[in-house]
Amino acid sequence: MMTERQEPKFNTFEAADDVLTEHSSIVSGIEALDEAQDKLQENMELIEEACGRKVAAGAGTAAEKKTAKKQVATSCMRLVGLLRVEASTKGDEALAALLRPYSQSMLERTRDGRLPSVVDSIVALARTHETGLRRAGLSDDQLTAHDALTARFRELSPAPKLGRADKSLEVEKIEALFSATDKLLKERIDPMLRNLEERHPDFVKKYFAVRHIDNVGARKGDPAGVTPNA
Asked: Do 65 and 155 form a contact (C-beta atoms < 8 A)?
């Protein structure tokens, strides 16, 4: 995903490349111009790839973590259900009171940083009443699976920070690629196109029209002949 400033600029890169491609018979006859267009296309591909990674860095880990959190909450509520059976069987009002706050939605809404301690509290109650819970159907496999789900959630807990770091890195790459592409156009491709003005006026006029450069010839005090909005 590009910023509001980058997207229209990228569109001008594409438009310039389209004009160059349309006049490939001319471009291919000028070695340096042909190479410069290849570099332009390469930069555009790198920008699109970096934008894709930027989006993935923010979305992938968050989606994984949300799924893991839901799985942990479901596993916890199974333990809570067995604990409620134990509380009812034993007439243990104190245990029943401890279990009242817990629900699937409550656990899913719990802050990521706090959820592990809530899970630990539920597991501690399950361990304390393990004999009764086993009579109600608790198995070793269930406990093992619960521990694995909890461990997975803990592993993913730092992921948003890592995702932000990855995203920032891609943002820097994208900005550098935009700067490099601007420089490529202004310092290499634009001057070579100006040199073709007398030989291929229609081609040159069309190119600078999509580049949003008003006057092809150099202006006084502006050797490159590029207006500020180029």
From this structure: no
Q: Find the largest Cα–Cα distance for the chain.
A: 98
State the Rg of the chain over Cα: 31
For residue 202, count other CB atoms closer than 10 A to its CB.
8
- Closest listed residue to residue 151, CA positions, set 83, 81, 71: 71
Per-residue pLDDT tens listing for the chain (230 residues): 678 888 889 999 999 999 999 999 999 999 999 999 999 999 999 988 887 776 655 545 677 888 999 999 999 999 999 999 999 999 999 999 999 999 999 999 988 888 999 999 999 999 999 999 999 999 999 999 999 999 988 887 754 444 555 557 778 888 999 999 999 999 999 999 999 999 999 999 999 999 986 444 433 334 334 433 33
Q: Is the pTM of this model over 0.70?
A: no
- Confirm if 104 and 74 have CB atoms less than 8 A apart: yes
